[in-house]
Amino acid sequence: MVDGEWAEQRRRAIQAHTAAAEAKRAAEVAEARELMRWFVDAAAARGIAAEELTAMPFGGGGGRLRTGLRGWYLRADRSVAVGTDAEFYSLTAPGGLWARLTGVTVTPSRPRLIVGEGGRDGESMPLAELLRRRLGDDGVGWDG
C-alpha cells in the first residue's frame, strides 16, 4: 500500500470513529433529557417542590452563589441539579465579591447517563438512580 493510500484510509477510519462516537453521545444526551423530563413531571405530580438553586464558587470557598434558577438538587453536596426547565446543571461558577452580590449565570450542561463519569472513585452514579432517589422511591412509573 502506498503511503498516501494508507494515510487516506487512516483519515477515513478516524472520521468514521469520530462520527460513531458523536452519534452515541447524541443518543445518550437524548435519553438523559427524556429521563429529566419524566423526573420534572413526576416531582410535580408528587408535590415535591422545586427550590432556589445556588452554585459553589470554583475551588470551594465559603458560601453559595445565587443563580436565579429553581429545581431539585440530585446530590447531598448540591453540586448538580435538574432545573424546572428539565435541564441538567453543574452548579459551580466563578466566585468573588461581585458574584456574591449579584449572583451568577449557570448554563445547562449536556447531560450524561452516568453523572460524574471519569471522576474520583465512588462519585459516579447513573442519572436514573439519582432521579429515583430524589423522588424518594424506586422510580415506579418510569418505563425507560
Give structural notes.
This is Anti-sigma factor RsiW. The protein has one domain (3-135). The chain contains three helices and seven strands; from the N terminus they run αβββββαββα. The chain has helices spanning 3-45, 97-102, 127-135; strands at residues 51-57, 65-73, 80-83, 88-90, 92-93, 114-115, 125-126. A hairpin with a 4-residue loop joins strand 3 and strand 4 (88-90). The radius of gyration is 19 Å and the shape is globular. 20% of the residues are buried.
Can you summarize this structure?
The chain is α+β, with helices and mostly antiparallel strands.
Counting H and I runs of at least 4 residues, what is the number of helices? 3
Strand content: 15-25%
Overall domain count: 1
Global Rg: 19 Å
Protein name: Anti-sigma factor RsiW
Organism: Catenuloplanes niger
Topology:
Elements: H1 3-45, E1 51-57, E2 65-73, E3 80-83, E4 88-90, E5 92-93, H2 97-102, E6 114-115, E7 125-126, H3 127-135
Parallel strand pairs: 1-5
Antiparallel strand pairs: 1-2, 2-3, 3-4, 6-7
Organism: Catenuloplanes niger
Protein name: Anti-sigma factor RsiW
Search tags:
single chain, 144 residues, alpha+beta, two-stranded antiparallel ribbon, 3 helices, 7 strands, 40% helix, globular, disordered C terminus
